[in-house]
Amino acid sequence: MTTAATASKERHKAPKLTFFDHVNAAFDEAAKHTDHDRTLLEQVKWVNSVYRMTFPLRRDDGSIEVVNAWRAQHSHHRLPTKGGIRYSIHVNEDEVMALSALMTYKCALVDVPFGGAKGGVRINRHKYSEGELERLTRRYTAELQRKSFIGPGKDVPAPDYGTGEQEMAWIADTYAQIEHGEVNVAACVTGKPIEHGGIHGRTEATGLGVFFGIREACSYEDDMAKLGLEPGVAGKRVVIQGLGNVGYHAAQYLQSAGAKLVGLAEYEGAIACADGLNVNDVVEHRRETGSILNFPGASNIEPSRKALEIDCDILVPAALENQITRANVGRISCRIVAEAANGPTTSYASKAAAKRGIFVIPDVYLNAGGVTVSYFEWLKNLSHVRFGRMQKRFEESVRRDLLHAMSSATGASFSRDEIKILARGADEIDLVNSGLEETMATAYHHMRRYQKKLGPGVDLRTAAMALAIDKVAASYKTAGIFP
Predict the structure, then answer these.
(1) Candidate list 45, 82, 118, 260, residue with the active-site label
(2) Which parts of the chain register pLDDT below 70?
(3) Which pLDDT does position 410 carry in this prediction?
């Protein structure tokens, strides 16, 4: 082929879609099923504001490094905006814009009263000491505060890929030093350690939410019959990509419910075993050897992404975005794709999977557990009281009285251990998990009902996005921004 012909072919290639393009493609598809004014839809769709910053970081050796970072606020239909902060060498402006948009739709879908936001710092955190990470995090926080991109009623960050409780504690402390005397300072960030105003259950919240969502989807007998599956989680063969915080906890809960983990994948490779894998044993093996590969009784699969093609009932991509694409969607061999990560399936792949009869539980719903429990933490910080503190002892007293009354009326007796179990009042973790379970179950029911309303041919992702658009649009309308 001549140079001119090659150049002509290159010019006519379709441009590569970005992550934000894929999110907006899903938005556009869903918007067709709503009757909102085009101008209002444009307001809902596009990112409200993006703060791009560069700042110097003094390394431990005395050298100076320039760090690139971002914070995107997608929607101000409700305040504060809410979204995690990720530390990754792959972070860019498009990614934080896309993730902030997904946060808006996610919060709307599960009725959490936040607008969407997301932040990112472009570093490989493994190449930095703890002191360097602290200096970086505190400077990033100061930059956010300088432009009013953080605050209990403005924008509330949380952990994400590459960050955790320690970074959130540094953020809260830095904000407290800047906003001296702010009574609600702890509510400026969620995902904090318990001793700094965090909440029990936040660490496992996203993974537990994934489990609740899968369990709810599998509870509908007619939906499972269309896939050739029995209702319930027990006995289903599961493959999980990613054993980070989300994937590990989702695997634990699915395993406890009787699912069989036939494949697990991490960045170094993947393993498979038709008889099932114990996730805790695999994690221990990785801790000892530095890899999940060569786990006793399992076969190695390389490269890691090949694990997505293992024959199973439920495939759980719990790593990063764009894992199931045009290139591999034809080779995945599952009945259900449960999107535990943000954007693991491209817009094309999602449609192609639906055409093949694969049921996709969308990320905009399934990984909402983290933001739901972050909402609970935010409420706890604003109320300045631990959940359960006011009622736990009262509930226990009332239940003991009832047990004594039953014993007097019937002659039945209860052992001390039985009384301890039956009369126990709810702790914070009980209330958090109960609230999360209720949120995920109710949201799935509403999403499924909305899908039925839209009629045959509309997949669950489109229905979820359309429902989220309706809710965000309603907030704009009631605020008087649009007639």
Answers:
(1) 118
(2) 1-15, 479-483
(3) 86
The Cα diameter of the chain in Å comes to 97
Among residues 477, 455, 472, 349, the alpha carbon closest in space to that of 33 is found at: 455
C-alpha 301, offset from chain centre: 27
Q: Could you tell me the domains of the chain?
A: 49-195 (3.40.50.10860), 205-366 (3.40.50.720)
Contact (CB, 8 A) for 79 and 90? no
**239: three-class secondary structure by DSSP:** strand
With residue 442 as reference, give the H or E element that holds it: helix 428-454
C-alpha closest to that of 156 among 468, 439, 474, 381? 381
C-alpha–C-alpha distance, residues 106 and 440, integer Å: 11
pLDDT of residue 11: 46
Q: Is 118 a catalytic residue?
A: yes
Cα 62–63–65 angle (5° rounding)? 135
Q: Could you tell me which of 265, 295, 291, 263 has the C-alpha nearest to residue 281?
A: 295
Q: How many other CB atoms are found less than 10 A from the CB of residue 36?
A: 18
Q: 409: part of which helix (H) or strand (E)? A: helix 392-410
Please give the single-letter amino acid code of residue 71.
Answer: R
Q: What would the pLDDT profile of 69-81 be if each residue is shown by its tens digit? A: 999 999 999 999 9
What phi, psi does 53 have (nearest 5°)? -135, 150
pLDDT computed for residue 22 by the predictor? 87
Joined together, the tokens standing for residue 145 give 């505060």
Question: Which residues partner with 338 through β-bridges?
Answer: 361
Burial string for 161-193 (b: 16+ CB within 10 Å, else e) reads bbbebebbbbbbbbbeeebeeeeebbbbbbbbe
pTM for the predicted model, two decimal places: 0.88
What pLDDT does 480 receive? Answer: 65
pLDDT value of position 397 = 76
